[in-house]
Amino acid sequence: MKSKKLKTARIVSPRKSTTVAKTTARRSTTRIVKRFNAPGIQYAVIEMGKITRFALMVTPVSRGPVHMQLGEALRSLRSVLDKQREKANVTVQTVFLRDINDQTLCEQILAARYGDEMPATTFVHQPPCTGAALAIEVWATCGKPAYVERPVPNVVQSSMGNVTWTHCSGITPRNPTASVYEQSLDAFRQMKEKLKKAGVEMDHLVRTWLYLGNITGPEGDLERYMELNRARTDFYEGVQFGRGHVMAGVRQAVYPASTGIGMCGTGITMSATAIDTDRKDVFILPLENPQQTPVYEYEAVYSPKSPKFVRAMAEAIGDYVVIWISGTASIVNSKTLHTGNPGKQADQTLTNIELLLSQKNLARHGAPGAGATLRDLAKLRVYVKRLQDYPIIRRVCEKRCGKNIPIIYVVADVCRSDLLVEMEGLAFAKRVR
């Protein structure tokens, strides 16, 4: 993984820039310094030495036309980001829509707002549980050691501490009438093409999001999600994920963390994040839950070709660890628990996430001195299958995680008919070495 020196760097000497970035990263500390929760906006502020990152969840309070709700959401964002002493770059955003027909208007408004600084953007047809026309998850970065570049449309690269993240968003198949298998293969091919144009190979992937309409619906003799899994397995064949940067001693399979979740309609949308660096103190560490069967070892009854992802992917970067939590549900071993009970399923899901993040689990995987709790989450997405279950699922999340963690709740079908809720998240943890 070789790091990129982005064109927008403001330090004249690339060699000096790299040295400064490495030194700063190794001496810095990383922590969530603030969480804020108010009607319409929630956010977490993550301090990474001289760089500050923001995880923001925005859901309009008003119930007017979509353009007015989007305008309110953008004003809420500006009310936070414009107060920073240095310019904040919005790098990635996911827009959850109640009505997919609103996408074109939203695209036009966002293009007018951001101009040449458009973040990598994914539109997903998943209605917010609050009844709003849309909700937006946003990642932003500020600080002089952080550099941002947009090498190709809907691809954004951000560089911090000589580590570059490449965000590739809004990928949809070019032939929406093809089979799920062919559409999925095409979307993965586009992902590879976009990353390659940005100078990044597929083996750098650490996180993917796969949105599939009618996810449990039929596709020939199988379900649509099974056919997506078949395409993913075939496309990943021969890719050595994390090559050269997998933490020493890792024996399990290495795949990106991932969410495969339903959405309205019958389409497919994908997005992904890759990491690129030449630092010797950066490692990736795939995480599994000791109480769950790795999904890539699932029995054929769940999918003839098992889903190829890990339960979480940890990135150890100097003195901190970023943990990308895959889509997680109420599953122990490989069986669904608490069928028909949304509250208990939500509670079990959070217990599974808690086990993944724990110091004990990271030590078991070869990273002693690192770990996190539910209260260390920078953000959480909660996919609710039935809108009527939203109040009880929200109560469980607030009880377990606290009320200040930024959370977006959207209506989305889950990949098994007996699952009522799925969650994903991101945590930052200090690493003691």
Indicate the percent of residues in helices.
10-25%
Main sheet: strand order: 1-2-3-6-4-5
Coarse structural class:
alpha+beta
Query: Helix and strand succession?
Result: HEEEHEHEEEEEHEEEHEEEEEEEHHEHEE
The proportion of strand residues reads: 25-35%
Mean pLDDT: 91
| Domain tally | 1
Number of strands: 22
Q: How many strands, what sense, and barrel or not for the largest sheet? A: 6 strands, mixed
Low-confidence stretches: 3-28
Q: What quaternary form is this?
A: single chain
Distance between the termini: 23 Å
> What spatial form do the alpha-carbon principal axes imply?
globular
Number of helices: 8
Radius of gyration: 20 Å
Can you describe what's shown?
By secondary structure, this protein is of the alpha+beta class. The longest helix has 18 residues, at 180-197. It starts with 13 loop residues before the first helix and ends with a strand. 25% of the residues lie in helices and 34% in strands. The protein contains 8 helices and 22 strands. The strands form 5 sheets. Strands 1-2-3-6-4-5 form a 6-stranded mixed beta sheet, covered by helices on one side. The protein has a 6-stranded mixed beta sheet with strand order 7-8-9-14-10-13.
